[in-house]
Amino acid sequence: MNILKGKVAIVTGGSSGIGRAICEIFCEEGAKTVIIGRREELGKELEKILLKKGYEALYIKADISKEDEVKSMVNMVVGKYGKIDILVNSAGLVKMGNTHEFPLKDWNEVLAVNLTGPFLCCREVLPYMIREGRGSIINISSAAGLRGVPKVAVYSSSKAALIMFTSVLALEYGPYGIRSNCICPGPIDTTMLKEVGRFHGIDELEAKENAKKNIPLQRIGEPREIAKAVLFLASDESSYVNGSIIPVDGGLTAGRFTVAIGKR
Ligand SMILES: NC(=O)c1ccc[n+]([C@@H]2O[C@H](COP(=O)([O-])OP(=O)(O)OC[C@H]3O[C@@H](n4cnc5c(N)ncnc54)[C@H](OP(=O)(O)O)[C@@H]3O)[C@@H](O)[C@H]2O)c1
To answer: pTM, whole model, 2 decimals?
Structure first.
């Protein structure tokens, strides 16, 4: 299939984890894919791999929490490709700690990446989508944005705010033909999950085993399983989907309470 043929897509946080899987699937489906991240070695490496496979990919180094860097990144994309059809806000940061001891610096840093970053990217991209009379914005929130998770007050709050930001975008820009939707992943096998384990003083395996206990499908998700849902929202296959908040979490948030689930 080639369901994104001719489309230009920006993926923030595109050089690792979920964002990387999104870049891969977008390229496979024919999109000109722009990978955004701060770590140049990771971004360049992915760009090289994708180009070698014959795909159209471009890495641009940018910190999405910095207004000038987002502006120049968007200008570069439009300068090269002439338009932007898809924006995926996948870049994200988690910092853990007791709320009564949490440093203001960390609070502000998480908000800057998880909420201000998507705002800046949308603000700079929207004029080009309005000009085309079409576009698809996909925000990567979290199951932690749908219900509270202890020790991640700012992460949970930022992800809940990103859900509301998506709803506002859907209302404000639907009339311009621009669709805005949000995916809320459950625990996914990336370095972010390792960091959560590290905070609790347990290894990756134990962190995964603990996370699995609350998931009806009884396993951790793979980045590609999020990418497939994002692909649907990015493509014209979802032409009537706007303002949807979609958990992709193995059923984690289907129940109201967190319970240890057995096989029977
Ligand atoms: N893994 C999970 O279990 C899980 C669950 C629910 C939701 N999510 C969400 O899914 C998204 C992707 O997370 P992941 O699991 O794939 O984690 P990851 O592998 O750590 O990816 C995070 C990405 O964000 C980029 N990033 C961080 N700060 C940035 C900044 N200031 N400017 C530009 N890029 C920045 C990082 O690249 P650089 O460091 O190179 O900048 C990295 O590529 C996040 O929004 C996360 O909150 C993850």
So the answer is: 0.97
